[in-house]
Amino acid sequence: MLGTRKRGHEAALLHSGLTATGATALIRSNQSSPLSRSLAVFLLAGSFVVPAARVFAQEHPPAEPAAHADEHAHPPAQKPEEEAAPVERSSVTQHSMMLGGRQIRYTATAGTLLIRNEEDKPYGSIFYVAYTADGAESKTRPVTFLYNGGPGSASLWLHMGSVGPMRVITNSPAATGSGPYQVVPNEYSLLDQSDLVFIDAPLTGYSRAVGKATVKDFAGVDPDLRAFAKVIERYLSVNQRWNSPKFLFGESYGTTRSAGLSAVLQEDGVALNGITLLSSVLNYNASIGAGLEVSYVNYLPSYAAIAYYHKKLPQMPGGSPAAMAAFVEEARVFARGEYAEALAEGEALPPARVDEIAAKLNHFTGLPVSYIKEAKLRINPTRFRKELLRGDGDILGRYDARFEGTEVDDAGENPSYDPSDTGISGVYVAAVHDYLQRELKYESTDEYKLSANTIGEWDWHHRAVGAGGRGAQQLPYVAGDLGDTIRKNPKLQVLSANGWFDLATPFFATEYELNHMMLAPELAKNVHFTYYPAGHMVYLNVDALRQLRDDLRPFYQQAEK
User: Is 489 within 8 Å of 266 (Cβ atoms)?
Assistant: First the structure.
């Protein structure tokens, strides 16, 4: 990614296997790879990523000249005029495509919207690309706001790969390699069901700070929420869409944003119809390490799915998707039961019981019993990526464990890179640049920034809106925000979309958080779960993208009622 990829697929300290100290050291290391830096970033959070961003220095106007005794003889110097705020600009193009057996004519608008601070001064120019169906009634036509995560990632990944009108072709799960690349009409687009607005986070893409704003006005959980709420509300006002059904679609840290944003928008009078959470991280208050057992439990079902996919289980239970789902369910039961209980006993666990648990972990992960016992029954996800295919001389991807790669050092403890990251970065970066300029006719002298590179300055504190006494949080727990929003807006529907082979945001952790929002039984039915044979970026698998599109159709219909 012009530095680093940071798609918003970045999991947290909580989902990484690195300690906060180790992650900080990794960021500072001159020898760390872009992916390593992004991983460390996500780690410091609890779950995801970064690259190059411009820091906008605070401008201090010169001090007022002292008043002179004789103002007529010596008039005060004129204060320099404040820099004029940039204007909102856009490029509008007309297009058509076949979707669901019918022709869809639509308008693409690539442009910027200004957001204002509490003093009504512009402080951000936010880049977006909107696709709106021609001739549709805006009062009944849904509008969906989509974004990636990071934090600090542009939204090219969702824009060029998921449910937009065009998508890039990759060789996933093999590396796509060098160009030229293909960008084709997306037969799995959501445009026949909703207008789509892809938003680049502040300081990413063509989004910029303006006026006297600095990175501190955007680099933090709550500043980010405020900025996104402002740009969404600005779009609704400019385009007269306040009465339209409204949806959010976030990926990775974008799900953190969506959960918190649901509460902020609710307070502003924006009642959402639905939220799609793709590859979620909703609680950064967990980590991997001695005495912190929950993440080991949360990763185990993902290990089972991945070992099944790579045929590394000691006894393969069958070859169908249903057989894999049943096997993963067995892993869930073991993880929340025997495994969690064994880890809770720590060193008091009897040796015979250690042997029993190690044998069962071998059954679910395919890792050698000897290795499992040496690891004290605690399997780190980064080590798992190195260990499962060690005998073949291969490593696994973190974002998508279907991807395989080779190493210089087969004896190492951890992978030196993520083949699921390096395998697709080039194609997405090239595609978004070419598409914006060639097809959408958007020209800018600015650099399109893939990442804001603000993770080192990110403020992870969070004060939940309507927190019910929870108060300020050192690290964000936004499942609580989402639960509060559902209680206040009982029509809100939530779809949690998960990849079986995602080692950045394990699906079992997502299930736990969404099943612990303390909702009444009738409201718990508003939360829906779907699973796909893919990794973090579900849409890299075209079959999974088709399934996702098929799941979104009834979800939108239900949420619009």
Answer: yes
φ and ψ at residue 105, rounded to 5 degrees: -95, 135
Cα–Cα distance between 384 and 367 in angstroms, integer?
Answer: 8
The pLDDT value recorded for residue 22 is 41
C-alpha to C-alpha distance for 278 and 250, rounded to whole angstroms? 6
CA–CA distance, 263 with 265 (Å, rounded to integer): 5
- Confidence at residue 292, expressed as pLDDT on a 0 to 100 scale: 79
Whole-angstrom distance, CA of residue 487 vs CA of residue 504? 29
- The secondary element (H helix, E strand) that includes residue 394 is strand 394-396
Residue 496 bridge partners (DSSP): 277, 529
Percent of the chain with pLDDT over 70: 83
Sign of dihedral through CA atoms 150, 154, 157, 159?
positive
The mean per-residue pLDDT over the stretch 330-347 comes to 97
- Whether residue 478 contacts residue 465, with contact meaning beta carbons closer than 8 Å, is answered with no
Mean pLDDT (the chain) is 87
Instruction: For residue 196, report the phi and psi dihedrals to the nearest 5 degrees.
Output: -125, 130
Spatial CB neighbours of 489, under 8 Å, sequence gap ≥ 6: 266, 271, 272
Using the predicted structure, report yes or no on whether residue 269 has a pLDDT greater than 50: yes
Q: What is the mean pLDDT of residues 527-544?
A: 98
Q: Residue 364 burial by CB count (10 A; 0-12/13-18/19+): exposed, middle or buried?
A: buried
Q: Which domains, ranges and CATH numbers included, belong to the chain?
A: 96-285+426-559 (3.40.50.1820), 294-379 (no CATH)
SS3 of residue 95 by DSSP: strand
The answer to whether 131 touches 239, Cβ cutoff 8 Å, is no
> How far, in Å, CA of 195 to CA of 235, rounded?
12
> Count of CB atoms within 10 A of residue 66's CB?
6
- Amino acid in position 319: G
Of 118-127, 470-479, 532-541, give the lowest mean pLDDT range. 470-479
For 358-392, the pLDDT digits (tens) are 999 999 999 999 999 999 999 999 999 999 999 99
What does the block give as tokens for 209?
Answer: 């700070």
Helices 253-267 + 221-238 axis angle, to 10: 60
Tokens, residue 403: 């991807």
Q: How far apart are CA 170 and CA 544, in angstroms?
A: 14
Report residue 67's pLDDT band, with 50, 70 and 90 as the boundaries. very low
3-state secondary structure of 373: helix
Assess contact for 358 and 392: CB atoms under 8 A. Answer: no
pLDDT value at 234 more than 90: yes
> What count of residues does the chain have?
561
Residue 390 CA to residue 329 CA, distance in Å, equals: 26
Q: What separation in angstroms does the CA of 135 have from each of 84, 91, 104, 105, 132?
A: 37, 19, 10, 8, 9
Residue 24 near residue 427, CB atoms below 8 Å: no
CB hemisphere CA count around 16 (13 angstroms): 31
Q: Residue 237 contacts by C-beta under 8 Å, 6 or more apart in sequence? A: none
- From 243, 232, 6, 212, select the one nearest 124 (Cα to Cα): 212
Q: Does the pLDDT of residue 42 top 80, yes or no?
A: no
pTM score: 0.86
Please determine, for residue 34, whether its predicted confidence score (pLDDT) is greater than 70. Answer: no
